[in-house]
Specification:
The protein is an alpha+beta fold. Strands 1, 2, 3, 4, 5, 6, 7, 8, 9 and 10 form a ten-stranded mixed sheet that branches. It folds into two domains: 1-42, no CATH class; 46-148 and 162-168 and 185-193, Alpha-D-Glucose-1,6-Bisphosphate, Chain A, domain 4, CATH 3.30.530. The protein starts with a helix and ends with a helix. It is built from four helices and ten strands, in the order αβββααβββββββα. It is globular and about 50 Å long.
């Protein structure tokens, strides 16, 4: 299982990188890379399916997905029976070339406690690379929504991505704090609206 795979690559304990507005962002070293993985946690007024609906609605990616190039997100393939979505997206990158990524989302069935795990990973060779864009070569992560009672859910988002090329680690690791904070802030607002 992907979730276990993320745990297996951990080389150090999580370090709290940001604790603001009810959102906690943690980072830690991943494999032999200078780039870090992140984990963000927030409690939201809503239902588990609220998060699932947002992740399945590709038309909203422009709103919440960090630095998504407007209009670039699209479904390449969808298999509802397997709970699989292949999603293409372009990403604005400051200083360096823009990126693109093909992500396979796996929407798992609800667990016994009512939580839902949505795993994802990159598939860099699913479609041909585009000129002028750097394909994200490695991506792995998940979204998890856990019912907390009293109309609240805990959302956990954990991910690692190698941005492709060789951008400065400081730039990438800064984004590994800003990106989950931004996404969790916007998704909370979308759910609680």
């Amino acid at each position: 299982m992907l979730f276990g795979g993320l745990q297996a690559h951990a080389e150090e304990e999580w370090s709290l990188s940001r604790d603001k507005d009810g959102i906690k962002i943690y980072t830690r070293k991943f494999k032999d890379y200078n780039y870090k993985e992140y984990k963000g946690i927030v409690i939201v007024d809503g239902k588990v399916n609220d998060l699932v609906s947002i992740l399945k609605d590709i038309s909203t990616y422009d709103q919440w997905s960090y630095n998504c190039v407007p209009g670039s997100a699209k479904i390449l393939k969808k298999d509802e029976a397997k709970g699989e979505y292949y999603v293409y997206m372009e990403i604005k990158a400051p200083i360096v070339s823009n990126r693109d990524v093909v992500t396979l989302y796996k929407f798992n069935k609800p667990a016994a406690d009512g939580s839902v795990l949505v795993e994802f990973w990159g598939d860099e060779n699913y479609i041909p690379k585009k000129n002028g864009l750097v394909r994200v070569p490695e991506l792995v992560g998940y979204w998890k929504a856990i019912p907390m009672g009293n109309g609240k859910i805990k959302i956990i988002h954990q991910a690692f991505s190698h941005p492709g090329g060789n951008p400065p680690a400081g730039l990438v690791n800064g984004a590994n704090v800003n990106a989950p904070f931004s996404m969790l802030t916007i998704i909370r607002d979308m759910i609680e609206k």
